[in-house]
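User: Teach me something about this protein's shape.
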Amino acid sequence: MLLAAVLAAEDVSFVLVGSAAWYLHGHRIPVADIDAVPASDGGNLTRLHAALAVMVPDGRVPAMRRFGTADVVSVRTSYGGLDCLRGWGRRNWGKLQSGARLVQVHDAGVMVASATTVTALRRRHTRTGS
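Assistant: First, the predicted structure itself:
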């Protein structure tokens, strides 16, 4: 969760989904990494890339262009793993953001997808084995 707080403190706009969001909705489950849908505007993706460049121990951050084009970009940081869900997020950003709520995580405001959205995503990925 600390990774989500650090990204929010770096002014990266995203909505948290996956197990971390599920946890913040009150379900006490283990959280191995965070799944986030970043806003697609160029300035936000630049801030995301710059923040990750500082947090990746070996300095191997995926190329900036991948954050604009790939469906999923996975990064291992000193704060844990991050999966940026770009493809699904581009198609569903408006709906995802409108149902999200701000949650305080380590003194930073983190946007968390609605419980309905998180539940639907968990069901979808559990069924497909993703």
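Now, about its shape. Residues 15 and 88 are 12 Å apart (CA to CA). Strands lie at 14-17, 33-38, 72-77, 80-85, 101-105, 108-112. If you'd like, I can walk through any region in more detail.
User: That's plenty for now, thanks!
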